[in-house]
Design goal:
Shape: globular
Low-confidence stretches: none
Number of strands: 0
Strand content: under 5%
Mean pLDDT: 92
Distance between the termini: 46 Å
Helix content: over 70%
Number of domains: 2
Order of helices and strands: HHHHHHHHHHHH
Radius of gyration: 18 Å
């Protein structure tokens, strides 16, 4: 959207009413797909921050409740349909913690996520992030120095996640195998709970 289209959307009462009705209905129904669609629109348009925050809180609540149900059934999450959005919410929450320098909180979330997903590329990416968090690298520094922006576009289903780096992931994980094993051992209690 260009600036004129954005301004038109921001000032179109019919569209704003539709967006608000969708926000309220999606939250009541705990429809994560509609919630994310609404959230993304509200963010692009720069709408009411309080409503955005409430919607994001409901997304997290819905995602965490559904992830718990899936994990309690001894299943893993794939990157399809609502499961992709549950993983996205979990991931974004970890990134949020990381952005506030809560390295341990982010590392714990990435660790849990790495152990409840069924996707090798994302799992490897999460393990790279666990190593970075152990080294207390800021999210901005990591993003600017380690993420390969050219390769990211090749993996459309991974658009929400950092999975392409400017180094060989397998080699990096092998070089940091001991550290990762140590971190997994320290964090294992999170899965045993």
């Amino acid at each position: 959207m260009d600036k004129n289209e954005l301004n038109e959307a921001r000032t179109n009462p019919d569209f704003l009413n539709y967006l608000e009705e969708t926000r309220v209905k999606s939250m009541e129904e705990q429809n994560i797909s509609a919630m994310y669609e609404t959230l993304d629109s509200m963010l692009v348009l720069g709408l009411d921050e309080e409503k955005i925050n409430k919607l994001y809180e409901q997304i997290l609540k819905t995602a965490f409740e559904n992830v718990e149900k899936i994990v309690n059934e001894n299943k893993k999450l794939n990157l399809v349909d609502d499961n992709l959005l549950y993983v996205r919410a979990f991931y974004e929450h970890a990134i949020e913690k990381w952005s506030y320098d809560n390295y341990d909180g982010a590392k714990e979330l990435f660790f849990v996520l790495a152990n409840i997903i069924e996707d090798e590329l994302l799992e490897k990416g999460l393990n790279v992030l666990i190593i970075a968090l152990n080294d207390k690298i800021s999210v901005d520094e990591f993003y600017e120095t380690k993420v390969d922006f050219d390769k990211n576009s090749e993996h459309e289903q991974y658009g929400y996640f950092m999975v392409d780096f400017n180094f060989d992931t397998d080699t990096y994980l092998e070089e940091n195998k001991e550290l990762l094993t140590e971190q997994y051992s320290k964090l294992q209690h999170l899965l045993d709970a």
